[in-house]
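In this section we walk through a basic example: taking a raw amino acid sequence and producing a predicted 3D structure, encoded as discrete structure tokens. The instruction is simple. Fold the sequence below.
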Amino acid sequence: MIIVQVLLSSILVSLRLGSYTYTIMTSGNLNKSINERLIETFVLRLGIALYYFSFAISFYVSTLTSKYFRDIFWKRIREFYRYCQRLRLIICM
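The resulting token sequence is shown next.
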């Protein structure tokens, strides 16, 4: 489980690093077209989003790979649903 987390995190961080490296290396090129700048900005923002997603990887990897975590997760979802149902009954009265 930890190996999968480390691999996914390193891939996501390397994507961000690659997009920043490309942006810095081509920043002196003033002859970029609108499409090239648009693609560069999109890839840069995608890299940033994936970088922040890497902080949530442990939850997803644990939930997908361990039956214990899945059972606890579904138990908490059911408890939260029941809590919302009780709140709705109290509010409607």
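Looking at the output, two observations stand out. Residues 67-92 form the longest helix (26 residues). Residues 2-66 form one domain. In the next section we compare this with other chains.
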